Amino acid sequence: IDKEAAAARKIPVCNVPGKNAIAVAELVIGLLIAIDRNIPDNVIDLRAGQWNKKKYAAAKGLYGRHMGIVGLGAIGLAVAQRARAFGIHVYVVDKPDRKPEMQEQISKLELQTVPDLPTLLACCDILSLNVPAAPETRNLVDSAFLAAVQPGTIILNASRSDVIDEAALLKAMDEKGVRGGLDVYADEPAAGQSSFDSQLAMHANVYGTHHIGASTDQAQAAVADGVLEIIEAFGAGQVLHCVNGQA
Length: 247
Prior knowledge:
Distance between the termini: 17 Å
Number of helices: 11
Helix content: 40-55%
Radius of gyration: 20 Å
């Protein structure tokens, strides 16, 4: 939606924030578990009639690991809540302008704050990207970012594809053993079903899904309810969650 064009015509553009956060967070944690226990490869071998307990018995485990949350909005917070339930130490970059309710959640969940992104990258072996598409987040995960991460770091991205420089990530996977749990990709098909030639999606270090982060019945129902709330409020003369300055 061209928000500026709508604003010029005094048309409010509204969104439904946070309603799919739980669904996305569940997928992020699912990808993390799948990577640690090599679940997809287990399934592939079993379906092919292969038993290889010796190979798949090797797993690091999640308890006591260190996860960095890059982007602590509704989804980032939902990921942090679930990670803490697994006994994972969770880190976020300290931001003094956070709302009091978010600061309260940080304290309640015992999230650990660090002064900046380089410090976060240095102390974490799992990273969850939960940022919006914006000029400042485009190619956030670039060669410099990846040079700072630990070898074997797990990078989880169910946010936006342009957050990652895919060529840089492919290089880090080959040279540093970085692994990825990804739900979004550059140039992914717009259609529901299509062929997809992606070096990143096909890389052995990636366990990927088909941009399905918000695709649960619960999330879709919650979003639909949120849309109805906006329509009903508009009918009563109130504009909710306006994103183009027309409230």
